[in-house]
Amino acid sequence: MLPYPEIDPVALALGPLKIHWYGLAYLTGIAVAWWLAIRRCREPWSPIKREQVDDLVFYAALGIVLGGRVGYTFFYGGQRLIEDPTWALRLWEGGMSFHGGFLGVLLAMYLFGRKQKLAFWRVMDFVAPLVPIGLGLGRLGNFIGQELWGRPTDVAWGMVFPADPLQLARHPSQLYEFALEGALLFGLLFWFSSRPRPTCAVSGFFSLGYGCARFFVEFFREPDAHIGYEAFGWLTRGQILSLPMIAVGITLLFVAYRGSSATAQRATGTK
């Protein structure tokens, strides 16, 4: 069993104002994505120009925060939202959902593309490789904040989280998510998108990759206590929400490469 490296979840306290590592992780993720967007917009195949990057990041940040919060209240809020609807507005109490943030970014990118007269899927293909950075940093914030820990285990790297009332050795599932949804997915997407790909291919790669990674890690993550297991008595809410992402990813990749093949055939006159 590994000792949990106790870190104060509050990074900086200025009187009554407390800045948590989780919030800093979000800000750092957005800042790094901004920097990478500036670098990648210089590529000749980029649909985004330098003067559009700032607006792109602003729209994406709004989609992440608003979508993440709204998604959490609807996907995981349950009875609490019914009993106290104002809870949805109390952001300082925590609670963000990736799947809600994902839907928020989709809407934000649609509005951005419409304003800039850019095709939606070309914008999404540009944005997709930037997303895992924030996902990975957010999972580190979860780990420091001792939240969303894993299921009980007897593996050698199990950890006892001080905030766990049962004091059981658990999978450090936040670190699994950091490794898969963050570092690995970012590396694969950055490599995959480093050369021109058919429209929708990068978006499909992201959706399929994240959906599979999240579905897998959920087997090691403790389900929300007020929700528990759902479909078939063993699927979690996170796994159910990831299944549509897997299906969409496969569909987008099929459409992207089928369309690319059909275009190539027309260009060469083959059938």
Automatic annotation (TrEMBL):
Pfam families: LGT. A 1,2-diacyl-sn-glycero-3-phospho-(1'-sn-glycerol) binds at residue 139. It is found in: Cell membrane. Pathway: Protein modification; lipoprotein biosynthesis (diacylglyceryl transfer). Keywords: Cell membrane, Membrane, Transferase, Transmembrane, Transmembrane helix. It comes from the Bacteria. Its main location: membrane. Its EC number is 2.5.1.145. The chain crosses the membrane at residues 19-36, 56-75, 95-112, 119-138, 175-192, 199-217, 237-257. It is a multi-pass membrane protein. GO terms for molecular function: transferase activity. Signal peptide: none annotated. Belongs to the Lgt family. Catalyzes the transfer of the diacylglyceryl group from phosphatidylglycerol to the sulfhydryl group of the N-terminal cysteine of a prolipoprotein, the first step in the formation of mature lipoproteins. This is Phosphatidylglycerol--prolipoprotein diacylglyceryl transferase. It comes from Candidatus Seongchinamella marina.
